[in-house]
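User: Sequence recovery, please. Input:
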Protein backbone atom coordinates (compact mmCIF):
# COMPACT_ATOMS: atom_id res chain seq x y z
CA UNK A 1 0.00 0.00 0.00
CA UNK A 2 1.81 3.11 -1.24
CA UNK A 3 -0.33 5.67 0.57
CA UNK A 4 1.21 8.49 2.62
CA UNK A 5 2.21 7.86 6.21
CA UNK A 6 -0.88 9.37 7.80
CA UNK A 7 -3.27 7.41 5.61
CA UNK A 8 -6.22 5.97 7.47
CA UNK A 9 -6.64 2.35 6.38
CA UNK A 10 -10.32 1.50 6.09
CA UNK A 11 -10.87 -2.19 5.42
CA UNK A 12 -14.06 -3.96 4.62
CA UNK A 13 -15.53 -6.75 2.51
CA UNK A 14 -16.88 -5.78 -0.92
CA UNK A 15 -19.22 -8.07 -2.85
CA UNK A 16 -19.41 -7.59 -6.62
CA UNK A 17 -22.28 -9.17 -8.52
CA UNK A 18 -21.37 -11.56 -11.31
CA UNK A 19 -17.96 -11.53 -10.89
CA UNK A 20 -14.72 9.29 29.15
CA UNK A 21 -16.45 12.66 29.29
CA UNK A 22 -13.72 15.32 29.42
CA UNK A 23 -11.03 13.29 27.73
CA UNK A 24 -13.47 12.19 25.03
CA UNK A 25 -15.10 15.57 24.40
CA UNK A 26 -13.24 16.45 21.19
CA UNK A 27 -13.44 13.02 19.47
CA UNK A 28 -17.10 12.73 20.47
CA UNK A 29 -17.82 16.15 18.97
CA UNK A 30 -16.39 15.00 15.64
CA UNK A 31 -18.40 11.79 15.78
CA UNK A 32 -21.65 13.67 16.45
CA UNK A 33 -20.90 16.08 13.61
CA UNK A 34 -20.38 13.14 11.26
CA UNK A 35 -23.66 11.66 12.44
CA UNK A 36 -25.40 14.93 11.59
CA UNK A 37 -23.79 15.08 8.13
CA UNK A 38 -24.79 11.48 7.43
CA UNK A 39 -28.36 12.05 8.60
CA UNK A 40 -28.89 15.35 6.76
CA UNK A 41 -26.85 14.38 3.68
CA UNK A 42 -24.86 17.60 3.91
CA UNK A 43 -22.31 18.54 1.25
CA UNK A 44 -19.20 18.47 3.44
CA UNK A 45 -15.68 17.26 2.81
CA UNK A 46 -15.68 13.68 4.03
CA UNK A 47 -11.89 13.60 4.11
CA UNK A 48 -11.77 16.60 6.47
CA UNK A 49 -14.28 14.99 8.82
CA UNK A 50 -12.44 11.68 9.01
CA UNK A 51 -9.02 13.31 9.34
CA UNK A 52 -10.41 15.52 12.10
CA UNK A 53 -11.73 12.50 13.97
CA UNK A 54 -8.38 10.71 13.54
CA UNK A 55 -6.46 13.68 14.91
CA UNK A 56 -8.81 14.05 17.87
CA UNK A 57 -8.37 10.39 18.80
CA UNK A 58 -4.59 10.50 18.40
CA UNK A 59 -4.34 13.56 20.65
CA UNK A 60 -7.01 12.62 23.21
CA UNK A 61 -5.80 12.26 26.79
CA UNK A 62 -7.31 9.52 28.91
CA UNK A 63 -6.47 7.38 31.90
CA UNK A 64 -5.94 3.67 31.70
CA UNK A 65 -5.11 1.49 28.74
CA UNK A 66 -7.84 2.44 26.30
CA UNK A 67 -10.70 4.79 25.44
CA UNK A 68 -14.00 3.65 23.92
CA UNK A 69 -16.60 6.02 22.44
CA UNK A 70 -19.67 5.48 20.32
CA UNK A 71 -22.72 7.02 18.73
CA UNK A 72 -25.56 5.26 16.95
CA UNK A 73 -23.51 4.46 13.79
CA UNK A 74 -19.86 5.11 14.75
CA UNK A 75 -17.67 3.45 17.35
CA UNK A 76 -14.08 4.48 18.13
CA UNK A 77 -11.34 2.97 20.26
CA UNK A 78 -7.93 4.33 21.18
CA UNK A 79 -5.15 2.26 22.78
CA UNK A 80 -1.85 3.14 24.40
CA UNK A 81 0.83 0.77 23.17
CA UNK A 82 4.36 0.25 24.41
CA UNK A 83 7.36 -1.60 23.03
CA UNK A 84 6.28 -4.63 25.10
CA UNK A 85 3.12 -4.90 22.95
CA UNK A 86 2.07 -8.59 22.83
CA UNK A 87 -0.68 -8.30 20.23
CA UNK A 88 -4.31 -7.27 20.44
CA UNK A 89 -7.60 -8.99 19.62
CA UNK A 90 -10.82 -6.99 19.39
CA UNK A 91 -14.19 -8.66 19.18
CA UNK A 92 -17.53 -6.89 18.86
CA UNK A 93 -19.07 -9.37 21.31
CA UNK A 94 -16.86 -7.95 24.07
CA UNK A 95 -17.62 -4.31 23.19
CA UNK A 96 -20.66 -2.25 24.09
CA UNK A 97 -23.35 -2.97 21.50
CA UNK A 98 -23.98 -0.34 18.81
CA UNK A 99 -27.65 0.07 17.75
CA UNK A 100 -26.88 -0.14 14.02
CA UNK A 101 -24.41 -3.04 14.36
CA UNK A 102 -26.12 -6.41 14.04
CA UNK A 103 -23.46 -8.86 12.83
CA UNK A 104 -20.28 -9.75 14.66
CA UNK A 105 -16.85 -8.48 13.60
CA UNK A 106 -13.31 -8.79 14.94
CA UNK A 107 -9.79 -7.45 14.39
CA UNK A 108 -6.49 -9.05 15.39
CA UNK A 109 -3.17 -7.17 15.50
CA UNK A 110 0.12 -9.14 15.73
CA UNK A 111 2.83 -8.39 18.29
CA UNK A 112 5.23 -7.21 15.58
CA UNK A 113 2.97 -4.24 14.79
CA UNK A 114 5.17 -1.94 16.90
CA UNK A 115 8.51 -3.69 16.46
CA UNK A 116 9.89 -1.61 13.59
CA UNK A 117 8.85 1.69 15.18
CA UNK A 118 10.26 0.73 18.59
CA UNK A 119 13.61 -0.16 17.05
CA UNK A 120 14.06 3.41 15.80
CA UNK A 121 11.91 5.51 18.13
CA UNK A 122 10.99 3.73 21.39
CA UNK A 123 8.15 5.28 23.32
CA UNK A 124 4.39 5.22 23.72
CA UNK A 125 2.36 4.66 20.56
CA UNK A 126 -1.30 5.26 19.90
CA UNK A 127 -3.45 2.76 18.01
CA UNK A 128 -6.90 3.96 16.99
CA UNK A 129 -9.78 1.96 15.53
CA UNK A 130 -12.87 3.51 13.95
CA UNK A 131 -15.91 1.42 13.06
CA UNK A 132 -18.53 2.85 10.67
CA UNK A 133 -21.84 1.02 10.49
CA UNK A 134 -22.99 2.68 7.28
CA UNK A 135 -21.23 3.37 3.98
CA UNK A 136 -22.21 7.03 3.57
CA UNK A 137 -18.64 8.37 3.76
CA UNK A 138 -17.18 5.74 1.40
CA UNK A 139 -19.20 5.94 -1.81
CA UNK A 140 -17.61 5.20 -5.18
CA UNK A 141 -18.60 4.25 -8.71
CA UNK A 142 -17.97 0.51 -8.40
CA UNK A 143 -20.86 -1.88 -9.00
CA UNK A 144 -20.58 -3.27 -5.49
CA UNK A 145 -21.90 -2.98 -1.96
CA UNK A 146 -20.42 -3.41 1.48
CA UNK A 147 -21.17 -6.58 3.41
CA UNK A 148 -23.26 -5.60 6.47
CA UNK A 149 -22.52 -1.95 5.52
CA UNK A 150 -19.49 -2.17 7.84
CA UNK A 151 -16.23 -0.27 7.43
CA UNK A 152 -13.53 -1.12 9.97
CA UNK A 153 -10.51 1.18 10.16
CA UNK A 154 -7.23 1.19 12.08
CA UNK A 155 -4.24 3.52 12.30
CA UNK A 156 -0.99 3.32 14.29
CA UNK A 157 -0.16 6.95 15.14
CA UNK A 158 1.33 8.66 12.09
CA UNK A 159 3.46 5.63 11.22
CA UNK A 160 3.40 3.64 8.03
CA UNK A 161 3.15 -0.10 8.70
CA UNK A 162 4.25 -2.60 6.07
CA UNK A 163 6.11 -5.88 5.50
CA UNK A 164 4.48 -7.70 8.43
CA UNK A 165 5.31 -11.41 8.57
CA UNK A 166 2.02 -12.03 10.38
CA UNK A 167 -0.96 -10.22 8.86
CA UNK A 168 -3.60 -8.09 10.53
CA UNK A 169 -6.73 -10.24 10.52
CA UNK A 170 -10.15 -8.66 10.08
CA UNK A 171 -13.13 -10.97 10.38
CA UNK A 172 -16.78 -10.46 9.42
CA UNK A 173 -19.74 -12.64 10.32
CA UNK A 174 -22.97 -12.46 8.33
CA UNK A 175 -26.22 -14.33 7.66
CA UNK A 176 -26.66 -13.26 4.04
CA UNK A 177 -26.71 -15.53 1.01
CA UNK A 178 -23.70 -14.67 -1.18
CA UNK A 179 -24.48 -17.10 -3.97
CA UNK A 180 -23.53 -15.50 -7.29
CA UNK A 181 -21.32 -12.89 -5.62
CA UNK A 182 -17.57 -12.65 -5.23
CA UNK A 183 -16.29 -11.54 -1.83
CA UNK A 184 -13.17 -9.40 -1.71
CA UNK A 185 -11.27 -7.68 1.09
CA UNK A 186 -10.43 -4.07 0.17
CA UNK A 187 -9.09 -0.91 1.77
CA UNK A 188 -9.93 2.75 1.18
CA UNK A 189 -7.19 4.28 -0.97
CA UNK A 190 -7.39 8.02 -0.52
CA UNK A 191 -6.80 10.27 -3.55
CA UNK A 192 -7.04 7.45 -6.09
CA UNK A 193 -10.31 8.67 -7.68
CA UNK A 194 -11.12 11.76 -9.74
CA UNK A 195 -14.75 11.87 -8.59
CA UNK A 196 -14.53 10.85 -4.95
CA UNK A 197 -12.08 11.37 -2.11
CA UNK A 198 -10.94 7.76 -2.43
CA UNK A 199 -11.62 4.39 -3.98
CA UNK A 200 -11.75 0.81 -2.76
CA UNK A 201 -8.58 -1.12 -3.63
CA UNK A 202 -7.69 -4.80 -3.04
CA UNK A 203 -3.93 -4.07 -2.85
CA UNK A 204 -2.24 -5.94 -0.02
CA UNK A 205 -5.45 -7.75 0.98
CA UNK A 206 -6.06 -11.48 1.13
CA UNK A 207 -9.59 -12.86 1.45
CA UNK A 208 -10.47 -16.12 3.20
CA UNK A 209 -13.89 -17.64 3.66
CA UNK A 210 -13.75 -20.13 6.57
CA UNK A 211 -16.43 -22.69 7.24
CA UNK A 212 -19.47 -21.41 9.18
CA UNK A 213 -18.56 -23.50 12.22
CA UNK A 214 -15.05 -22.14 12.55
CA UNK A 215 -14.50 -19.63 15.33
CA UNK A 216 -12.04 -17.07 13.99
CA UNK A 217 -11.65 -14.88 17.03
CA UNK A 218 -12.52 -16.29 20.43
CA UNK A 219 -14.00 -13.93 22.97
CA UNK A 220 -11.47 -12.37 25.36
CA UNK A 221 -11.00 -13.80 28.85
CA UNK A 222 -12.23 -11.43 31.59
CA UNK A 223 -9.28 -9.94 33.49
CA UNK A 224 -10.90 -10.74 36.85
CA UNK A 225 -10.74 -14.45 35.97
CA UNK A 226 -7.24 -14.42 34.50
CA UNK A 227 -5.53 -13.47 37.79
CA UNK A 228 -6.86 -16.37 39.92
CA UNK A 229 -6.43 -18.84 37.06
CA UNK A 230 -2.82 -17.74 36.60
CA UNK A 231 -2.17 -18.05 40.33
CA UNK A 232 -3.70 -21.54 40.47
CA UNK A 233 -1.65 -22.62 37.45
CA UNK A 234 1.58 -21.25 38.92
CA UNK A 235 1.08 -22.90 42.32
CA UNK A 236 -0.26 -26.16 40.88
CA UNK A 237 2.48 -26.59 38.28
CA UNK A 238 5.20 -25.75 40.80
CA UNK A 239 3.88 -28.33 43.29
CA UNK A 240 3.51 -30.89 40.47
CA UNK A 241 7.13 -30.31 39.39
CA UNK A 242 8.38 -30.99 42.91
CA UNK A 243 6.08 -34.02 43.27
CA UNK A 244 7.22 -35.51 39.95
CA UNK A 245 10.88 -34.99 40.81
CA UNK A 246 10.38 -36.60 44.22
CA UNK A 247 8.56 -39.55 42.67
CA UNK A 248 11.33 -40.16 40.12
CA UNK A 249 13.99 -39.91 42.86
CA UNK A 250 12.10 -42.40 45.03
CA UNK A 251 11.86 -44.72 42.05
CA UNK A 252 15.62 -44.69 41.53
CA UNK A 253 16.17 -45.16 45.25
CA UNK A 254 13.98 -48.31 45.25
CA UNK A 255 14.90 -49.49 41.76
CA UNK A 256 15.24 -53.12 42.83
CA UNK A 257 11.46 -53.22 43.38
CA UNK A 258 10.57 -51.81 39.96
CA UNK A 259 8.65 -53.66 37.24
CA UNK A 260 7.06 -52.76 33.90
CA UNK A 261 4.11 -51.07 35.61
CA UNK A 262 6.42 -48.85 37.63
CA UNK A 263 8.49 -48.02 34.55
CA UNK A 264 5.33 -46.85 32.78
CA UNK A 265 4.36 -44.72 35.78
CA UNK A 266 7.81 -43.11 35.82
CA UNK A 267 7.66 -42.26 32.12
CA UNK A 268 4.29 -40.62 32.69
CA UNK A 269 5.81 -38.63 35.57
CA UNK A 270 8.71 -37.56 33.32
CA UNK A 271 6.33 -36.33 30.62
CA UNK A 272 4.26 -34.41 33.19
CA UNK A 273 7.46 -32.87 34.58
CA UNK A 274 8.53 -31.74 31.10
CA UNK A 275 5.04 -30.36 30.41
CA UNK A 276 4.90 -28.31 33.62
CA UNK A 277 8.41 -26.87 33.20
CA UNK A 278 7.73 -25.91 29.57
CA UNK A 279 4.40 -24.35 30.51
CA UNK A 280 5.88 -22.19 33.27
CA UNK A 281 8.67 -20.96 30.95
CA UNK A 282 6.26 -20.18 28.10
CA UNK A 283 5.02 -16.69 29.19
CA UNK A 284 8.58 -15.55 29.93
CA UNK A 285 9.96 -16.51 26.52
CA UNK A 286 6.89 -15.04 24.82
CA UNK A 287 7.99 -11.50 25.73
CA UNK A 288 8.78 -9.29 22.74
CA UNK A 289 12.39 -8.80 23.93
CA UNK A 290 13.09 -12.54 23.54
CA UNK A 291 14.20 -13.73 20.07
CA UNK A 292 11.51 -15.41 17.98
CA UNK A 293 13.63 -18.55 17.59
CA UNK A 294 13.67 -19.13 21.35
CA UNK A 295 9.87 -18.84 21.57
CA UNK A 296 9.44 -21.13 18.57
CA UNK A 297 11.71 -23.76 20.14
CA UNK A 298 9.86 -23.61 23.47
CA UNK A 299 6.46 -23.76 21.73
CA UNK A 300 7.57 -26.92 19.91
CA UNK A 301 8.86 -28.36 23.21
CA UNK A 302 5.59 -27.52 24.98
CA UNK A 303 3.59 -29.18 22.21
CA UNK A 304 5.88 -32.22 22.33
CA UNK A 305 5.50 -32.45 26.10
CA UNK A 306 1.71 -32.30 25.85
CA UNK A 307 1.59 -34.99 23.14
CA UNK A 308 3.97 -37.19 25.15
CA UNK A 309 1.88 -36.76 28.28
CA UNK A 310 -1.32 -37.68 26.42
CA UNK A 311 0.39 -40.66 24.79
CA UNK A 312 1.64 -42.02 28.12
CA UNK A 313 -1.88 -41.62 29.53
CA UNK A 314 -3.14 -43.79 26.67
CA UNK A 315 -0.34 -46.29 27.36
CA UNK A 316 -1.47 -46.46 30.99
CA UNK A 317 -4.95 -47.31 29.74
CA UNK A 318 -3.59 -49.97 27.37
CA UNK A 319 -1.49 -51.51 30.14
CA UNK A 320 -4.47 -51.55 32.49
CA UNK A 321 -6.43 -53.46 29.84
CA UNK A 322 -3.65 -56.05 29.58
CA UNK A 323 -3.57 -56.46 33.36
CA UNK A 324 -7.32 -56.94 33.81
CA UNK A 325 -8.44 -58.24 30.44
CA UNK A 326 -6.00 -61.09 29.84
CA UNK A 327 -6.68 -64.32 31.72
CA UNK A 328 -3.18 -65.66 31.10
CA UNK A 329 0.05 -63.75 31.54
CA UNK A 330 1.11 -62.18 28.29
CA UNK A 331 4.81 -61.85 27.60
CA UNK A 332 5.84 -59.15 25.15
CA UNK A 333 9.54 -59.06 24.36
CA UNK A 334 11.13 -55.73 25.30
CA UNK A 335 7.72 -54.46 26.33
CA UNK A 336 8.85 -51.28 28.11
CA UNK A 337 11.30 -50.37 25.33
CA UNK A 338 8.55 -50.61 22.72
CA UNK A 339 6.23 -48.51 24.86
CA UNK A 340 8.97 -45.86 25.19
CA UNK A 341 9.35 -45.82 21.42
CA UNK A 342 5.63 -45.04 21.16
CA UNK A 343 5.36 -42.70 24.14
CA UNK A 344 8.36 -40.55 23.25
CA UNK A 345 8.94 -41.35 19.57
CA UNK A 346 5.51 -40.72 18.04
CA UNK A 347 5.13 -37.19 19.51
CA UNK A 348 8.71 -36.39 18.45
CA UNK A 349 8.01 -37.45 14.86
CA UNK A 350 4.85 -35.32 14.73
CA UNK A 351 6.54 -32.19 16.09
CA UNK A 352 9.65 -32.59 13.91
CA UNK A 353 7.44 -33.08 10.87
CA UNK A 354 5.59 -29.84 11.61
CA UNK A 355 8.88 -27.97 12.08
CA UNK A 356 10.22 -29.36 8.80
CA UNK A 357 7.08 -28.44 6.85
CA UNK A 358 6.41 -25.01 8.35
CA UNK A 359 8.13 -23.85 11.52
CA UNK A 360 5.79 -20.84 11.74
CA UNK A 361 3.09 -23.10 13.20
CA UNK A 362 4.87 -22.43 16.50
CA UNK A 363 5.45 -19.01 18.02
CA UNK A 364 3.80 -16.36 20.16
CA UNK A 365 0.11 -17.03 20.76
CA UNK A 366 -1.84 -14.00 21.98
CA UNK A 367 -4.55 -14.51 24.61
CA UNK A 368 -7.08 -11.69 24.66
CA UNK A 369 -8.00 -10.23 28.03
CA UNK A 370 -10.91 -7.84 28.53
CA UNK A 371 -11.32 -5.52 31.49
CA UNK A 372 -14.61 -3.68 31.92
CA UNK A 373 -14.13 -0.22 33.39
CA UNK A 374 -17.31 1.78 33.77
CA UNK A 375 -18.75 2.48 30.34
CA UNK A 376 -15.62 1.38 28.51
CA UNK A 377 -14.06 -2.00 27.89
CA UNK A 378 -10.29 -2.28 28.06
CA UNK A 379 -8.32 -4.80 26.07
CA UNK A 380 -4.86 -6.16 26.40
CA UNK A 381 -3.09 -9.34 25.41
CA UNK A 382 -0.94 -11.79 27.25
CA UNK A 383 1.17 -14.14 25.17
CA UNK A 384 2.55 -17.65 25.49
CA UNK A 385 4.79 -19.71 23.22
CA UNK A 386 2.38 -22.19 21.69
CA UNK A 387 0.82 -23.54 18.49
CA UNK A 388 -0.28 -20.67 16.24
CA UNK A 389 -1.85 -22.56 13.35
CA UNK A 390 -5.58 -23.20 14.03
CA UNK A 391 -5.66 -26.36 11.88
CA UNK A 392 -2.70 -27.90 13.71
CA UNK A 393 -4.26 -26.90 17.03
CA UNK A 394 -7.58 -28.51 16.09
CA UNK A 395 -6.00 -31.79 14.93
CA UNK A 396 -2.86 -32.28 17.03
CA UNK A 397 -4.06 -30.68 20.25
CA UNK A 398 -7.84 -30.95 20.56
CA UNK A 399 -8.21 -33.99 18.29
CA UNK A 400 -5.28 -35.89 19.82
CA UNK A 401 -6.43 -35.05 23.32
CA UNK A 402 -10.03 -35.95 22.50
CA UNK A 403 -9.10 -39.41 21.23
CA UNK A 404 -6.90 -40.06 24.25
CA UNK A 405 -9.60 -38.94 26.68
CA UNK A 406 -12.27 -41.02 24.93
CA UNK A 407 -10.08 -44.13 24.92
CA UNK A 408 -9.18 -43.79 28.59
CA UNK A 409 -12.77 -43.05 29.63
CA UNK A 410 -13.85 -46.28 27.94
CA UNK A 411 -11.01 -48.19 29.62
CA UNK A 412 -11.89 -46.65 33.00
CA UNK A 413 -15.57 -47.63 32.72
CA UNK A 414 -14.61 -51.15 31.63
CA UNK A 415 -12.00 -51.51 34.42
CA UNK A 416 -14.47 -50.43 37.11
CA UNK A 417 -16.99 -52.93 35.77
CA UNK A 418 -14.40 -55.74 35.86
CA UNK A 419 -13.31 -54.82 39.40
CA UNK A 420 -16.92 -54.74 40.57
CA UNK A 421 -17.55 -58.19 39.08
CA UNK A 422 -14.42 -59.64 40.68
CA UNK A 423 -15.33 -58.30 44.11
CA UNK A 424 -18.88 -59.64 43.78
CA UNK A 425 -17.46 -63.13 43.20
CA UNK A 426 -15.40 -63.09 46.40
CA UNK A 427 -16.78 -65.50 48.99
CA UNK A 428 -14.90 -64.13 52.00
CA UNK A 429 -16.95 -61.74 54.05
CA UNK A 430 -15.36 -58.48 54.94
CA UNK A 431 -14.84 -57.86 58.63
CA UNK A 432 -14.54 -54.14 58.03
CA UNK A 433 -16.89 -53.00 55.23
CA UNK A 434 -16.00 -49.37 55.93
CA UNK A 435 -12.32 -50.03 55.19
CA UNK A 436 -13.33 -51.90 52.04
CA UNK A 437 -15.40 -48.93 50.82
CA UNK A 438 -12.49 -46.60 51.54
CA UNK A 439 -10.11 -48.77 49.49
CA UNK A 440 -12.60 -48.94 46.62
CA UNK A 441 -12.96 -45.16 46.63
CA UNK A 442 -9.17 -44.71 46.55
CA UNK A 443 -8.94 -47.19 43.66
CA UNK A 444 -11.56 -45.36 41.60
CA UNK A 445 -9.98 -41.96 42.24
CA UNK A 446 -6.52 -43.34 41.53
CA UNK A 447 -7.52 -44.87 38.21
CA UNK A 448 -9.28 -41.64 37.24
CA UNK A 449 -6.09 -39.69 37.88
CA UNK A 450 -3.80 -42.30 36.35
CA UNK A 451 -5.70 -42.32 33.07
CA UNK A 452 -5.88 -38.51 32.91
CA UNK A 453 -9.63 -38.44 32.37
CA UNK A 454 -9.82 -34.94 33.90
CA UNK A 455 -8.33 -33.61 30.66
CA UNK A 456 -11.70 -34.30 29.04
CA UNK A 457 -12.93 -31.15 30.81
CA UNK A 458 -11.30 -29.17 27.97
CA UNK A 459 -14.31 -30.01 25.80
CA UNK A 460 -16.84 -28.29 28.10
CA UNK A 461 -15.65 -24.71 27.56
CA UNK A 462 -18.97 -23.31 26.33
CA UNK A 463 -22.18 -21.79 27.66
CA UNK A 464 -22.98 -22.27 31.34
CA UNK A 465 -20.11 -24.78 31.67
CA UNK A 466 -17.40 -22.24 30.80
CA UNK A 467 -16.78 -20.71 34.23
CA UNK A 468 -16.73 -23.95 36.28
CA UNK A 469 -14.80 -25.69 33.47
CA UNK A 470 -12.04 -23.07 33.53
CA UNK A 471 -11.45 -23.50 37.25
CA UNK A 472 -11.92 -27.28 37.41
CA UNK A 473 -9.65 -27.87 34.41
CA UNK A 474 -6.98 -25.54 35.82
CA UNK A 475 -7.09 -27.07 39.30
CA UNK A 476 -7.14 -30.75 38.32
CA UNK A 477 -4.56 -30.55 35.56
CA UNK A 478 -2.19 -28.09 37.24
CA UNK A 479 -2.00 -30.44 40.22
CA UNK A 480 -1.95 -33.55 38.00
CA UNK A 481 1.66 -34.37 38.90
CA UNK A 482 0.86 -34.06 42.60
CA UNK A 483 -2.16 -36.38 42.27
CA UNK A 484 0.04 -38.92 40.49
CA UNK A 485 2.50 -38.65 43.38
CA UNK A 486 -0.31 -39.45 45.88
CA UNK A 487 -1.31 -42.47 43.79
CA UNK A 488 2.33 -43.63 43.69
CA UNK A 489 2.59 -43.31 47.49
CA UNK A 490 -0.68 -45.17 48.08
CA UNK A 491 0.38 -48.00 45.79
CA UNK A 492 3.77 -48.25 47.46
CA UNK A 493 2.21 -48.33 50.93
CA UNK A 494 -0.25 -50.99 49.76
CA UNK A 495 2.59 -53.09 48.31
CA UNK A 496 4.61 -52.82 51.54
CA UNK A 497 1.54 -53.75 53.61
CA UNK A 498 0.97 -56.84 51.46
CA UNK A 499 4.64 -57.80 51.74
CA UNK A 500 4.49 -57.51 55.53
CA UNK A 501 1.28 -59.59 55.62
CA UNK A 502 2.94 -62.32 53.54
CA UNK A 503 5.99 -62.31 55.83
CA UNK A 504 3.77 -62.64 58.89
CA UNK A 505 1.85 -65.49 57.28
CA UNK A 506 5.11 -67.20 56.36
CA UNK A 507 6.45 -66.78 59.91
CA UNK A 508 3.23 -68.21 61.36
CA UNK A 509 3.45 -71.25 59.13
CA UNK A 510 7.07 -71.81 60.12
CA UNK A 511 6.14 -71.59 63.82
CA UNK A 512 3.28 -74.07 63.38
CA UNK A 513 5.56 -76.61 61.74
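Assistant: Recovered sequence (513 residues):
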Amino acid sequence: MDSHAALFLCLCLVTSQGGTAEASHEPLRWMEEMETVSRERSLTSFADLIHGLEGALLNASFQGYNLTLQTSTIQTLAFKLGCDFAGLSLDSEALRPVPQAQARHAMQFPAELTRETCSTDPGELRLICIYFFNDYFFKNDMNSFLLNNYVLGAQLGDRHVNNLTEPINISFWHNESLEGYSVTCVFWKEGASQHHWGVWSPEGCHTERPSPSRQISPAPIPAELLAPLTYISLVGCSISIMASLLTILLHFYARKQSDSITHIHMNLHASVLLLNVSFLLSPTLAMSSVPDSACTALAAMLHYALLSCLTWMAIEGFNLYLLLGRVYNTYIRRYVLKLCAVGWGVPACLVLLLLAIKSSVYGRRAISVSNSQGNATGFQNTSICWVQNPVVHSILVMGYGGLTSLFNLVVLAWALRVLHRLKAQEKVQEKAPGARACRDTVTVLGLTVLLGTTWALAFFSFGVFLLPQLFLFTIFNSFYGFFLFLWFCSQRCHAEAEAEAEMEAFSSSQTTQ
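The CA atoms of residues 464 and 470 lie 11 Å apart.
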